Amino acid sequence: MKKIPKERWVFGLMIILIAGFIWGYALESDIAAKKEPEIESPAMMVPASFSELAKQAQPGVVNIRTVKTVKGGSRVFRHFFGNPFSPQDPFHNFGPSPDEQAPDYKQRSLGSGFIIDRDGYIVTNNHVIEGADEIKVSLANDKEFDAEIVGRDPNTDLALIKIKGAPDLVPLKLGDSDKLLVGSWVVAMGSPFGLEQTVTAGIVSAKGRVIGSGPYDDFIQTDASINPGNSGGPLLNMNGEVVGINTAIVAQGQGIGFAIPINLARGIIDQLKAHGSVTRGWLGVGIQDLTPELAEYYGLKDKQGVLVAQVFEGDPADKAGIKAKDVIIEVNGKPIVTSRELTAMIAEIPVGQKTPIKILRDGQEKTVNVEIAKRPESERLAKSESENGEELGIQIAEITPELARRFGHSETEKGVLVVGVKPGSKAEEAGVQQGDLVKEINRKPVTTTDELRAELEKKDKIQLLVKRPNAGFVVIKIG
Length: 479
Hints:
By secondary structure, the chain is α+β, with helices and mostly antiparallel strands. The chain has 4 domains: 59-163, Beta Barrel (Thrombin, subunit H); 177-275, Thrombin, subunit H; 281-374, PDZ domain (Pdz3 Domain, Roll), CATH 2.30.42; 385-478, Pdz3 Domain (Roll). It is built from 12 helices and 27 strands. Strands 21, 22, 23, 24, 25, 26 and 27 form a 7-stranded antiparallel sheet that branches. The relative contact order is 0.08.
């Protein structure tokens, strides 16, 4: 019998051991694959840190009580006992006469806020402290301090107040609301109905909500309970960072609250702290989003942007050569999709800075340099009858300053005014409305009824570009 060398015997044993290990691992993996997959328990998905988070944040959350003097009685008081009642009214003797001044009264309200630094600066909502004669701030330790207004910004409903002489303040850390995901957990803190240091939890229901409260709407929607008195309190992420400021509720609904994103508020807070007011950039245009019909009308099927509905004379856009019906597609190299984006972007540009703005005009791209101005305090926002147009069911008129005022247009507007629409007519079915100002018909500008009438006689299929009060430009197809 031939003797096997020791080295070959050891090598063969190692091969057998390795093969056995691989076979065993494969068998175990196969058995595991045949098992039912484990499903994470819903209870495990609920954060376990609400208590600790609340405990850490409570020292930075405050209760705000205000007192304001309302002159001449409340609106309800004036309605029932003031001028609406004539001297002949049988109930007149129960209230002051029209010549008498209703008595002043003190109005008290409650709100919330949160500390942002150890110097005593506190963020809250503008509507919490607006017009207040007296502001009291209660800390989590029940100590109370008088507060003064540092600055207010009604456009975003933000305010900054300050208390003095409060030791050992615990400011809350500001987070990043851009990183907040829909569906993520948040905690709202404040004093709903005056119940101090209340904590509610929920999720982010949506972001970028526009609720019609102002030009800078960009709210976080949450189902964390927000009630009267919560206004100004913080909305926190699971790291205890402020990602929003509780601001509004939907009175008709449950579980629908709104908070101002902290990234929107951060720059405003800095300006209020430094200057007591907010300065925003101003372009000087009335704008609107592009509808599919407008995009098709201007041949912009593959383009995005914001339509310039009006250019205010003497303002930056006018000086730079921007015209009505231009489409703004970029600002400082950044694409623009919605009018809200454009408004927010221009607002953040420093006053006096020259800014490249790319526009589309007659299908051609063009870049203009605009020197941004300061936004005005009082914001400027962007109709002889004729039987012509009877076949379509409209009455038209050349616009005059008096008609312009009557139908809500600028007195300098040009075009042909729709002063009447016949019920059941082609025009009504197509969506023409009384007060529409016809600017173009089949892409041809019109300024007189004769011009419009001549164009109506030429075509069976009509496209009208109209300017509608409170809506901007609208394209209407007839026929």
